[in-house]
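Quick review question:
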């Protein structure tokens, strides 16, 4: 037993002596580097002397409980002496353990940074693919980084094209938009959501101090499989707090050709025939978020921007088309009307112009007059269908005969979701449904509907469809209504024919209505009938004309 305690005694003694030897070495090095006005030798001798005295105390003292406190007291005396001299020479910075404390804090920050970075599963990059430095642990936005990362991962897994984080009572509402449809998620606590917004603003290059005015930034993410996504980050202030919207690969939705939009072969031929003549007005009509801008850009691509002067007038330009001059209309400038911007652009005598809107009578007359002078103008209108767009155009124009003469074509459209090819279910409508759809009773349609039941794997476990994520749809396509303005129709309009008469002429010329095009896509298994109904049903409490800002029909 004595030998056991004796071994422990000398192990502790050895540890204390080694600790002092290392500290004495540090004293000597520090004196050499920092205490340049004081000789280094005395500090070396002091360290060696204290080490020798401590060794003798451990050897000569009969009791461990006397030797250890005495040696600690001797070491403390040496430390105090060096500390006093150091403070006298270096001032406030001379406190002995200042560097050690700072080193410990730095190590703690590094550990926290590694912990946060381990929680982040995506790589974040600037537009040039260089990495974006992640917030450091002492940054006020570091806490929200992991939450923002998980939110984006959730959006990627669900194929969401847009993420919306909006303040509400006591928390934040989170919505994912998949194929144009909103899917509410579990609300986020306000501190978590606000931290995520601050982190996203930092990554997107937005100002953290500005919390009221709208800001727009961009960044890229890369997942573990190397898939890169470009995100547009838009922040804005509300009375309840900041709002953040993320849009994924926004440029892709504008980069489509006319053949990719979903028109029938006849509709496509009619549209291309009209675009060959670079004169007159072409109206593109739809409610908001129904693909109007995509179609406008697709039409613009049909014109060679290197042999023609092509310009656009937009409040929020979405696409960067090669060779096309973009003119931005600033709604915040009270001295600048849309009609003035139109006149300014038209004075440059472009061949083709895209006007994203036509807000007033002056703008309508300016457009019609310019088009009649031998130019093509594509105009976006917020109308329910082609006939409603025609009413709006004629109602806006002070010179009705000029408006009729300039008009060439009206294209109305909606976006319907495409049934998931992996999990859609064959569906045969009943006789009542077939009659309502004006389809032949008894016909065996190759139609389908969305699968609302969860899939199961080989072991019977429920899984989400890998293609659609359980929504039953994957992607979108357009349904269209193309109204060709023929000479017969112009003559009828000039004779004050009402909209019903104009529609009869259009139907005689085989114009396909929006609902008919939707039914065709349902009958061919592309979409579901309830999807066609969804996009063609006006909002509750409104009628088609009122919801699209269209004037009442002529009597």
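Suggested answer, residue by residue:
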């Amino acid at each position: 037993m004595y030998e056991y305690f004796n071994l422990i005694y000398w192990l502790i003694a050895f540890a204390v002596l080694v600790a002092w030897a290392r500290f004495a070495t540090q004293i000597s090095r520090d004196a050499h580097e920092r205490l340049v006005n004081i000789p280094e030798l005395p500090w070396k001798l002091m360290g060696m002397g204290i080490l020798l005295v401590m060794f003798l105390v451990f050897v000569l003292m009969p009791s461990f409980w006397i030797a250890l406190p005495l040696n600690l007291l001797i070491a403390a005396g040496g430390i105090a002496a060096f500390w006093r001299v150091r403070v006298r020479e270096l001032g406030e910075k001379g406190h002995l353990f200042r560097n050690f404390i700072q080193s410990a804090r730095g190590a703690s920050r590094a550990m926290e940074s590694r912990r946060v970075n381990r929680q982040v599963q995506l790589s974040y990059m600037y537009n040039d693919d260089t990495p974006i430095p992640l917030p450091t642990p002492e940054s006020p936005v570091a806490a929200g980084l992991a939450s923002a990362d998980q939110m984006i991962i959730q959006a990627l897994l669900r194929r969401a094209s847009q993420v919306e984080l909006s303040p509400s009572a006591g928390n934040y509402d989170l919505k994912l938009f998949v194929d144009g449809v909103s899917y509410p998620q579990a609300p986020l606590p306000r501190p978590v959501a606000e931290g995520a917004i601050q982190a996203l603003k930092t990554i997107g290059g937005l100002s953290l101090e500005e919390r009221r005015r709208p800001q727009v930034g961009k960044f890229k993410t890369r997942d573990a499989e190397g898939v890169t996504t470009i995100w547009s980050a838009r922040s804005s202030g509300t009375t309840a707090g900041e709002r953040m919207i993320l849009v994924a690969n926004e440029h892709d939705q504008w980069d489509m050709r006319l053949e990719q939009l979903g028109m029938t072969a006849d509709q496509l031929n009619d549209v291309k025939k009209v675009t060959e003549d670079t004169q007159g007005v072409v109206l593109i009509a739809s409610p908001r978020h129904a693909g109007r801008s995509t179609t406008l850009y697709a039409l613009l691509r049909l014109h060679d921007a290197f042999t023609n002067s092509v310009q656009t007038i937009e409040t929020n330009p979405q696409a960067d088309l090669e060779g096309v001059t973009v003119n931005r209309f600033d709604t915040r400038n009270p001295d600048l009307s849309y009609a003035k911007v139109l006149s300014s652009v038209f004075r440059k005598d472009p061949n083709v112009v895209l006007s994203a809107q036509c807000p007033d009578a002056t703008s309508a007359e300016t457009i019609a007059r310019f088009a009649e002078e031998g130019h093509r103008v594509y105009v976006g209108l917020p109308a329910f269908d082609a006939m409603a767009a025609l009413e709006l155009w004629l109602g806006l124009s002070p010179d009705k005969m000029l408006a009729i003469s300039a008009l060439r074509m009206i294209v109305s459209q909606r976006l319907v979701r495409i049934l998931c090819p992996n999990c859609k279910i064959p569906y045969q409508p009943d006789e009542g449904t077939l009659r309502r759809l004006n389809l032949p009773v008894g016909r065996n349609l190759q139609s389908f509907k969305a699968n609302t039941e969860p899939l199961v794997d080989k072991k019977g476990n429920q899984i989400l469809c890998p293609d659609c994520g359980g929504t039953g749809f994957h992607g979108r396509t357009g349904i269209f209504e193309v109204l060709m303005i023929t000479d017969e129709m112009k003559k009828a309009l000039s004779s004050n024919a009402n909209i019903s008469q104009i529609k009869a002429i259009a139907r005689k010329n085989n114009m396909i209505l929006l609902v008919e095009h939707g039914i065709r896509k349902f009958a061919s298994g592309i979409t579901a009938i309830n999807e066609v109904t969804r996009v063609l049903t006006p909002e509750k409490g409104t009628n088609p004309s009122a919801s699209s800002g269209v004037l009442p029909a002529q009597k």
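Why it works: Residues 2-96 form one domain. The CA atoms of residues 215 and 235 lie 5 Å apart.
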